[in-house]
């Protein structure tokens, strides 16, 4: 790389006995063999601060008759080790920082270690580093390769709740942290078995977010609202991603509750002759009735979830085995894959995958023209009723839907 050769020329031009190390996101991506490496490069020098080395860079540029570059100092009062200088080289924004070493006696080992940990955690909470960490998490989740070990490293360094900061630490944080990691591991393995090409890059990222934070959305822990704030304040990522993850968390248990009906259609079995409930015979629904009910209930969910229905199916599959986090996060991968494919096949057979793109037969204006009211919440409720009828009657017309509404709710028409 031209940058590295140029940096060596800087040391030779100024007779520097400086050891140069390269760090930052670029190194991580190269080690992970990612096709598109990050443009975040940090140059670490061992015997001078970043600004002085940048000045040596400009000396070389000036001697060649080239334009010198502006040097920007970046300092944070909370920690000296965060001081750095930044300049533009080869159309890349490069940070230069001095390598620091700490010397301490054996008796003070624990105190110094605690101070270092304290500095790291304090630095993480700075806005500058929040944005940087959020960007790195974004890259981890967007990768098409395994990324669990990167999150596991955060756990090993006992920084999980500092990186993924919530307003108040949940009960049993160590156990919950394990569940979070287990969910993400299972989601990634299931995506691989299903085929990664089934999911777009955005869908993979949202699936891993949703799986990692799934145990946090329990009200007994931090609640769904806290997960949304985690995106906005802790990771400083797009609020739209937080809203999408929140929707996935909300609808996953609702959708997974429909799985027994999906599987009843996929593997139909006649009820036993003595099948009864509460002392009386239970009503046995036909497969057509079950299918119609599923079409309406699933269609209403997909109407909100939209193109993320594959992600919802993935997360719901992991939840299906049990509502207990410890069990759900360790269920059999083969069982999950079987359930995923069966439900996916029925969704496609019912033509539900594009539900969110279907135009409503009756919009708000149409319904308002049919009602004896000016406006109000009743219009919204009627729109929902109309959408449910449309899902139950995929070949129906707007006139048919209007006639049905008139018969069902004669007082309003």
From TrEMBL:
Q: Is the Phosphoprotein keyword given for this protein?
A: no
What is the name listed in the Swiss-Prot or TrEMBL entry for this protein? Poly A polymerase head domain-containing protein
Show the taxonomic lineage: Eukaryota, Viridiplantae, Streptophyta, Embryophyta, Tracheophyta
Give the family from UniProt.
Belongs to the tRNA nucleotidyltransferase/poly(A) polymerase family.
Which GO molecular function, any one, fits this protein according to its record? RNA binding
Keyword terms of this UniProt record: RNA-binding, Transferase
User: Which InterPro entries does the entry mention?
Assistant: NT_sf, PolA_pol_head_dom
Q: Which GO terms describe its biological process?
A: tRNA 3'-terminal CCA addition
All residue ranges annotated as the Poly A polymerase head domain in the record: 21-111
- Give the superkingdom in one word: Eukaryota
């Amino acid at each position: 790389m031209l940058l590295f050769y140029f940096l060596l020329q800087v040391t030779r031009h100024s007779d520097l006995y400086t050891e140069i190390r390269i760090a930052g996101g670029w190194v991580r991506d190269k080690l992970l063999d990612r096709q598109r490496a990050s443009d975040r490069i940090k140059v670490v020098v061992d015997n001078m601060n970043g600004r002085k080395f940048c000045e040596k860079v400009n000396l070389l540029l000036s001697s060649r008759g080239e334009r010198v570059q502006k040097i920007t100092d970046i300092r944070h009062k909370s920690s000296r080790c965060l001081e750095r200088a930044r300049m533009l080289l080869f159309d890349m924004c490069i940070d230069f920082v001095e390598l620091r070493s700490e010397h301490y006696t054996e008796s003070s080992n624990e105190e110094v270690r605690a101070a270092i940990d304290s500095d790291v955690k304090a630095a993480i909470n700075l806005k500058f580093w929040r944005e940087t960490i959020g960007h790195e998490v974004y890259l981890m989740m967007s990768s098409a390769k395994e990324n669990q070990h990167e999150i596991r490293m955060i756990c090993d360094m006992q920084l999980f709740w500092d990186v993924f900061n919530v307003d108040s630490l949940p009960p049993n944080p160590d156990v919950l942290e394990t569940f979070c990691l287990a969910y993400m591991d299972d989601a990634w393995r299931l995506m691989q078995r299903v085929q990664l090409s089934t999911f777009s890059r955005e869908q993979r990222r949202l699936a891993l977010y949703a799986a990692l934070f799934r145990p946090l959305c329990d009200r007994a822990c931090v609640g769904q609202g806290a997960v949304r704030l985690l995106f906005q304040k802790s990771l400083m990522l797009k609020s739209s991603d937080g809203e999408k993850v929140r929707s996935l968390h909300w609808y996953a248990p609702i959708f997974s509750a429909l799985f027994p009906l999906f599987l009843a259609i996929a593997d139909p079995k006649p009820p036993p002759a003595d099948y009864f409930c509460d002392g009386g015979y239970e009503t046995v629904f036909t497969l057509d009735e079950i299918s119609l009910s599923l079409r309406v209930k699933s269609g209403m969910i997909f109407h909100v979830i939209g193109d993320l229905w594959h992600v919802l199916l993935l997360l719901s599959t992991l939840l299906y085995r049990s509502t207990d986090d410890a069990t759900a996060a360790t269920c059999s991968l083969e069982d999950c894959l079987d359930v995923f494919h069966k439900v996916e096949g029925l969704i496609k057979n019912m033509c539900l995958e594009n539900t969110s793109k279907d135009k409503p037969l009756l919009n708000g204006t149409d319904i308002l023209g049919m009602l004896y009211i000016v406006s109000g919440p009743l219009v919204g409720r009627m729109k929902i009723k109309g959408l449910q009828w449309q899902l139950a009657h995929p070949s129906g017309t707007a006139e048919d839907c209007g006639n049905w509404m008139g018969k069902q709710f004669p007082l309003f028409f």
